[in-house]
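Here is an idea for our session: we take a single protein and study its fold together. To get us started, please write out a protein record for me. Start from the sequence, derive the backbone structure tokens from it, and show both lines together. Go ahead whenever you are ready, and we will take it from there:
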Amino acid sequence: MALSFHKMHGLGNDFVVIDARAAPVGLDAARVQRLADRRTGIGCDQLILIGPGTSTDVTMRIWNADGSEVGACGNATRCVPVLVGRDCTIETMAGVLTARLDGDGATVNMGQPRFDWEAIPLAYAMDTRRMPVGWGPLDAPGAVNMGNPHLAFFVSDPYAIDLAAIGPEIETDPLFPERINVNVAGIHARDHVVMRTWERGAGLTQACGTGACATFAAGRRLGLLDRTVRLDLPGGALTLAEDDDGHLLMSGPATHVFAGETSL
């Protein structure tokens, strides 16, 4: 039986999106890996399954390319209202998110960042503002959970860091029982950040929405950033803002590339 899908991306962070609102679609790690393979499948950083909601408009489940399921994906969340054609509430493993159409993409309320070491989670108690740990040229990161666990390293030049080499080492360090996403960011001004991300289960990506939010939150916590910033990633720019309740609002594009069918 053919499986219908949509190919979408947010700033180059690309997705296979399956709309299962009308009929359920069964997925497991092996099937996700086949669909996500860029040589023998469709190819994507993450696979997204949209289902019918009960107390929300829709549900969203997210798998990385390696078949691991995760709780949140900011760039994919912006794709949801674009796909369904209206503002919507979205139930995820990380909680309920609201997304509204905005220009050529969407604005998403990503909720409040969590900083407790148990919430990241870490293997043992530690100050998450400036963690007393390091790997090669990277040290003293902030740790944030934005539905996914993240580290944010503030450096002078994020493009000078060999993230492809050091990212896997940090991702799989025993300090992180659920692995970790690694962000390296340079602050150009209080309202301008440049960032790159190594995503757990996906590797180097063109953009990471939860990573952008986590880095913004870590910078705000240190008093380094204003309440609204432009954050530049390899794939383009996001606008991030903190509201009066401490919720993070992420705005940026979301693009529908094509629809298709596969027998995988």
About this structure: The domain at 3-102 is CATH 3.10.310.10 (Diaminopimelate Epimerase; Chain A, domain 1). The chain has two domains: 3-102, 134-246. The two ends are 9 Å apart (CA to CA).
